[in-house]
Write a structure and sequence with these properties.
five-stranded mixed β-sheet; single chain; elongated; 650 residues; alpha+beta
Length: 650
C-alpha cells in the first residue's frame, strides 16, 4: 500500500484537530477487503504509518479500523463457508433427485465432504450382510491400494464403534485411542495411508446402520461440532442415495417380473415418471430458493392429492414418531405422515390427506419431499440465527463498547432495518418458571432469546442474551409509553415460550447511537424495575419506574422528582393556581396535626367546617383512597419534595 492513503488520513485528522476518524483510516482496509487480501496484509497500513512517524491519533484510527476490517473479513469468510456448505448440500440433493449412477453420486458426496472439511482423505464404507463384514466402497484422496480394498469384521475399528452406537465418533490420534477394537488389517491400512485423526458418522436407513462416512487427516486435528454436523448431513444424503438406488433396483426387478403384464408395466412406468417429475420439481425448487409450502404444492400435483406441511403439535403424535424412527412415511387412517427431521430433531411433517392407497414409489416420493423440506428449514433457520447473532452483537456493542463510532453503529443498524436515531426503550426480560435442572434452564433461556430476537426483528429493534436473561432495545411508537411496551413484551414473550416472562423497562432513550452511556444507564434502570416486579410478586408482568409511585424515584435512572410530584399532587397544584385556593397548605397542616381536623382548624385559624370542605375537595381531586397509608406516604413525600423544589413564601 502506498503512503498516499496514510498522508490523506493524517491531513484529515490535522484539519479537524481531533483523532483520525475511522472514515479516513478505513480506506486502505476497504481496499484490502475488496481484493480479498490475507489476514497478514491488514498489519501493513499500521506498520507503514509507524515507520513513517505518523501522528499517534492516525495510528490509533488505523488500529481501530484494522480490528473492524478483520472482523468483517472473518464474517465474510464464515458466510462464504456456510454458503459453500449449503450449496454443496443442495447440489448433492440435486444429484440425488436425478439419480442414475449410485457410484457417481456417492463419489460426489465423498469429494464434497473432503473439500468442505479440508481433510486429506474422505471415504465411505458399506455393510455386506451376505458376508457379515463391511468394506470400503468409495474413497477420495487415498494413495494406498490396500486401504482402498480394505474389508473388516463387524464391530472392529472406529467404524465398528459408530455402527454399534449409531452415533458419530472422532479420534484426534487413531493409534493412541483405545475406545475401539484395533485389528492388524485396519491398523495396517491406516498406517499405509498415514492416518492420524479420523471422524466417522453413521449412514442410517430408519434405525438401521448400513455403513459409515469418514473424514480423516494425516496429522492430529480437532473436528469442530459444525464439521461433524455437516458430515452427518452428507451421510444422510448418501443413505438416501443408496435407498433410492435400492428402490430403483427393486422397481427394475418388478418390471422384469411383470414384463408380460402390459397393464401393470404401464402403471409402474407412470409411477416412475411421476417420481422423476417430482424429483426434478424439487431440485428446481431448491435451486430457485422455494419454501416448504412450494414443496408441498409440487408434491400435491404429482401425487394427485392434497399435501400439507404441518407443525409438530398439529400432526398425529404416534404416527409422527413412528415415521421419524422408521425413516419412512406411515399410514394414519386415510392419511400418510412423513416426518420432517434433521439430526434426530423433529421439525414438522408432510401430510398426504385422504389417500389411503399409496404406491411404494409414491410413498418414497413423499419421503424424499420430507427430506428436501428439512434441508430448506435448516437453511432458513441458519439464516435466521445468523441475523439474530448480528442483532445481538450490535446491542452488545452499544452496552459494552461505549467508544463506538455513532456513524458505524447507524450503518450496522440500517443493514438490520433498525433506526438508532429514533426514541427507544431498553427492556430487561427474564423467565420466572422453575427449571427441573441446568439443561432445562439453559434450553428455556435459549427459547427466550430466540423469541426475543424474533420480536426484535419484527419490531425493527435489537435483542441479546445477557445476565441470565434477555435485553431488548425496541423503538417507542408515538403516543406509546414505556409501561405499555413492557406489558406487551411480557405478554408476547410469555406466549411464545409458554412460561411467565417478567419485563422491566427503562425511561425512553433518544438517539441511542450517540448516547451509549444513556443506553447502559437505561439497561440498569430496566433491571432494577425487573427486580422490583419480582420482589413484589408481579411475575409475568411488565412495568417501568413510573409505575412504582415513590419507589420509582429509587428505580429510575434520572430520578424524575418533578414527574413524581406531578403524578401525585399535580391536580391540587393546578387547582390552587386556577382558583386561588389553599388546598396544598391545608393538606400540609392536616398531616402536621396528625390528620386531626380539630387540630388543623386551630393551626389554620379557620372553622372546622372549612377544613372538612377543603379535605372533601382534596378527595375529589386525588381519589377516594387518598387517606390510605400507602397513598398518604406518597402524598406527604410529594409535598416535601415540592417545598424543596419550589419554596413557599408567606
Amino acid at each position: 500500500m502506498s503512503s498516499d492513503h496514510v498522508q490523506s488520513a493524517e491531513r484529515s485528522a490535522t484539519a479537524t484537530g481531533a483523532a483520525a476518524r475511522p472514515s479516513s483510516a478505513e480506506a486502505p482496509f476497504l481496499e484490502l477487503l475488496a481484493r480479498g487480501a490475507s489476514a497478514d496484509a491488514y498489519e501493513q497500513p499500521v506498520l507503514l504509518a509507524r515507520a513513517e512517524g505518523r501522528a499517534a491519533e492516525l495510528i490509533a484510527g488505523l488500529e481501530h479500523a484494522k480490528v473492524l476490517a478483520l472482523r468483517v473479513r472473518s464474517d465474510l469468510e464464515g458466510r462464504r463457508r456456510r454458503e459453500a456448505e449449503l450449496s454443496a448440500l443442495f447440489e448433492t440433493a440435486h444429484d440425488l433427485a436425478g439419480l442414475r449412477d449410485l457410484d457417481a453420486v456417492l463419489q460426489a458426496i465423498v469429494q464434497r465432504a473432503r473439500s468442505l472439511l479440508g481433510t486429506d482423505l474422505a471415504y465411505l464404507s458399506l455393510n455386506d450382510p451376505a458376508r457379515g463384514d463391511t468394506y470400503v466402497r468409495v474413497t477420495e484422496g487415498s494413495v494406498a491400494a490396500r486401504f482402498q480394498q480394505l474389508r473388516l469384521g463387524m464391530g472392529e475399528g472406529l467404524g465398528g464403534l459408530v455402527a454399534q452406537t449409531a452415533r458419530p465418533y472422532v479420534t484426534d490420534d487413531y493409534f493412541k485411542d483405545d475406545r475401539f477394537q484395533h485389528t492388524l488389517a485396519i491398523d495396517s491400512g491406516a498406517q499405509d495411508e498415514g492416518l492420524v485423526a479420523i471422524l466417522g458418522v453413521p449412514l442410517m436407513l430408519g434405525h438401521r446402520v448400513i455403513g459409515v462416512l469418514f473424514a480423516a487427516d494425516r496429522r492430529a486435528r480437532v473436528f469442530e461440532r459444525e464439521q461433524i454436523a455437516l458430515l452427518g448431513s452428507f451421510a444422510a444424503l448418501a443413505a438416501a442415495a443408496i435407498d433410492t438406488a435400492n428402490l430403483l433396483t427393486e422397481t427394475r426387478s418388478a418390471l422384469a417380473d411383470l414384463e408380460r403384464a402390459n397393464e401393470i408395466i404401464q402403471d409402474r412406468s407412470g409411477v416412475i415418471e411421476r417420481a422423476s417429475d417430482v424429483h426434478d420439481r424439487l431440485a428446481e425448487l431448491v435451486l430457485r430458493g422455494g419454501g416448504v409450502h412450494d414443496v408441498a404444492a409440487a408434491v400435491s400435483q404429482v401425487l394427485d392429492g392434497v399435501v400439507e406441511f404441518t407443525e409438530i403439535d398439529a400432526a398425529p403424535t404416534k404416527a409422527l414418531e413412528a415415521s421419524r424412527v422408521e425413516g419412512h412415511a406411515v399410514r394414519h387412517r386415510d392419511d400418510w405422515i412423513a416426518a420432517v427431521a434433521a439430526g434426530g430433531e423433529l421439525l414438522g411433517a408432510l401430510v398426504l390427506r385422504g389417500h389411503p392407497g399409496l404406491d411404494p414409489v409414491d410413498q418414497r416420493t413423499l419421503e424424499r419431499a420430507a427430506m428436501v423440506t428439512s434441508l430448506l428449514l435448516l437453511a432458513r433457520r441458519s439464516a435466521a440465527e445468523a441475523e439474530q447473532r448480528v442483532r445481538g452483537e450490535l446491542l452488545d456493542d452499544l452496552l459494552d463498547a461505549r467508544d463506538r463510532d455513532p456513524r458505524l453503529l447507524r450503518e450496522r443498524a440500517s443493514r438490520l432495518d433498525a433506526d438508532l436515531d429514533a426514541t427507544h426503550v431498553v427492556l430487561a426480560a427474564r423467565l420466572d418458571g422453575t427449571a427441573a435442572d441446568a439443561d432445562h434452564e439453559a434450553a428455556a433461556r435459549r427459547r427466550l432469546w430466540s423469541a426475543a430476537s424474533h420480536l426484535a426483528g419484527t419490531r425493527h429493534g435489537l435483542a441479546a442474551a445477557r445476565d441470565g436473561g434477555t435485553v431488548l432495545l425496541l423503538p417507542l411508537d408515538p403516543g406509546d409509553t414505556a409501561t405499555d411496551l413492557a406489558r406487551r413484551t411480557a405478554a408476547h414473550l410469555g406466549a411464545a415460550v409458554h412460561e411467565a416472562v417478567t419485563v422491566g423497562a427503562s425511561a425512553p432513550v433518544e438517539e441511542p447511537a450517540t448516547r451509549p452511556d444513556a443506553v447502559v444507564a437505561a439497561y440498569e434502570e430496566g433491571r432494577r424495575c425487573l427486580d422490583a416486579l419480582r420482589l413484589l410478586g408481579r411475575t409475568g408482568d411488565g412495568a417501568a419506574a413510573e409505575d412504582f409511585g415513590f419507589l420509582g424515584l429509587l428505580l429510575a435512572g434520572d430520578r424524575d422528582i418533578g414527574g413524581f410530584v406531578e403524578r401525585t399532587i399535580g391536580q391540587l397544584v393546578r387547582y390552587d393556581e386556577r382558583r386561588g385556593t389553599d388546598l396544598l397548605h391545608t393538606l400540609d397542616a392536616y398531616f402536621a396535626c396528625g390528620m386531626s381536623p380539630a387540630r388543623t382548624k386551630d393551626d389554620l385559624h379557620v372553622h372546622v367546617n372549612t377544613v372538612a370542605q377543603r379535605l372533601e375537595r382534596v378527595g375529589r381531586l386525588l381519589g377516594e383512597d387518598w387517606q390510605e397509608p400507602g397513598r398518604v406516604l406518597e402524598i406527604q413525600l410529594a409535598l416535601r419534595l415540592r417545598r424543596l423544589a419550589v419554596p413557599v413564601h408567606r
